[in-house]
Design goal:
By secondary structure, this protein is an alpha/beta fold. The protein contains eleven helices and twelve strands. It has two domains: about 15-115 and about 255-280, Response regulator (Rossmann fold), CATH 3.40.50; about 120-250, 3-Layer(aba) Sandwich (Rossmann fold), CATH 3.40.50. The structure holds 5-S-methyl-5-thio-alpha-D-ribofuranose.
């Protein structure tokens, strides 16, 4: 560890230990989030300890205790179930460890909360739904309660339905696991078979959208369905832009940028500098049409065209390198 010249203590000496403790590690979003966190940690000469998530609340608690015992200066908690985290997170805070939460509401004024502006994300997606389909259609909706970003997006969906009486939610399904896309595909197949009049599916997580697309292709109804999602990855861009794809729009940040922002927030906290309680990385609407027209094939190409996909001005300071991608 060499440290960063001009940085405040303890970053001037380097080797500051920070733990990244995730609830979910599988899937493009979480892999890119982790890669962004690693890149930002490297740029800050942080010794980042990564604890993989397996959707296991008990294991995530145990990992927080392990991080405390390792003597970390900061912990980034990426998703999780708030009810199982409160007491162990308090133990970390009591030891002077700085904690940052991404997409899990820890409801503590000492813990900055990072999010992707989920209300705006869902609103942008639903505005596109209305542009393409009007405000009278039968819908499928993919949702699993208990995940902060999905709950926030769900608030927007509920309001959208009450404002648009012609929108009828005919089926609701969803699964979050290490096989989210394929499990959601099985449920989508049953829902779409039972409700052949569904023309729009709101699936605000890319693994959900991938599952619905799989089901639509298997049932041979891709030309009768339009899927709207959250999130983007290189694999998603390929699935959205391929010939005949029913996945017509997504609203997304670059998850790597969100991972980098989370580490920067932890670094600022450790350095004793001001961090806003609410840290937001704003998402962008990406339609199938705009992606095809721009000829964009990868998330790196997206970052070249849209500045918000290469960096964010959230949680920055002049001593923190933030041009990472
Ligand atoms: C199970 S929660 C999945 C969501 O978390 C992140 O906010 C991503 O945007 C993803 O959609």
């Amino acid at each position: 560890a060499d440290g960063l010249s001009g940085a405040p203590a303890p970053f001037d000496k380097g080797g500051v230990k920070v733990a990244l403790i995730s609830y979910i590690s599988a899937g493009d979003f979480f892999q890119a989030y982790q890669a962004g966190a690693e890149a930002q940690a490297k740029a800050l000469d942080i010794d980042l300890r990564i604890f993989p998530g397996r959707q296991d609340a008990a294991e995530q608690r145990e990992q927080i205790l392990q991080a405390i015992n390792l003597g970390v200066s900061g912990i980034v908690i990426d998703h999780g179930l708030p009810e199982s985290l409160g007491d162990v997170v308090q133990q970390a805070l009591d030891k002077g460890i700085k904690v940052v939460a991404f997409d899990v509401n820890l409801n503590n004024p000492k813990i900055p909360q990072v999010e992707q502006s989920d209300h705006e994300l869902a609103s942008l997606a639903l505005e596109q739904v209305v542009k393409d389909n009007g405000n009278g259609f039968n819908a499928g909706y993919v949702y699993v309660a208990g995940f902060a970003p999905l709950d926030r997006r769900n608030e927007v969906w509920d309001k959208f339905k009450s404002d648009n009486s012609g929108v009828v939610e005919k089926a609701r399904f969803g699964n979050v696991s290490d096989t989210t896309a394929t499990s959601t595909a099985d449920q989508a197949k049953a829902a779409l078979t039972a409700n052949p009049d569904i023309s729009v599916v709101f699936a605000p997580y890319d693994e959900f959208a991938r599952g619905v697309k799989l089901a639509a292709n298997d049932l041979g109804i891709a030309n009768k369905l339009k899927i709207y999602s959250a999130d983007v990855s290189t694999a998603d861009i390929q699935e959205i832009t391929e010939e005949g794809s029913p996945w017509v729009a997504t609203v997304a940040t670059n998850p790597a940028v969100v991972g980098a922002v989370s580490i920067r927030a932890a670094a600022l906290e450790i350095a004793g500098q001001t961090v806003p309680h609410q840290i937001t990385v704003k998402p962008t609407l990406l339609t199938q049409e705009s992606l095809r027209a721009a000829g964009v094939k990868t998330i790196e190409e997206l970052a070249e065209k849209i500045p918000a996909f290469s960096t964010s001005d959230a949680a920055t300071a002049n001593w923190i390198p933030d041009k990472l991608f």
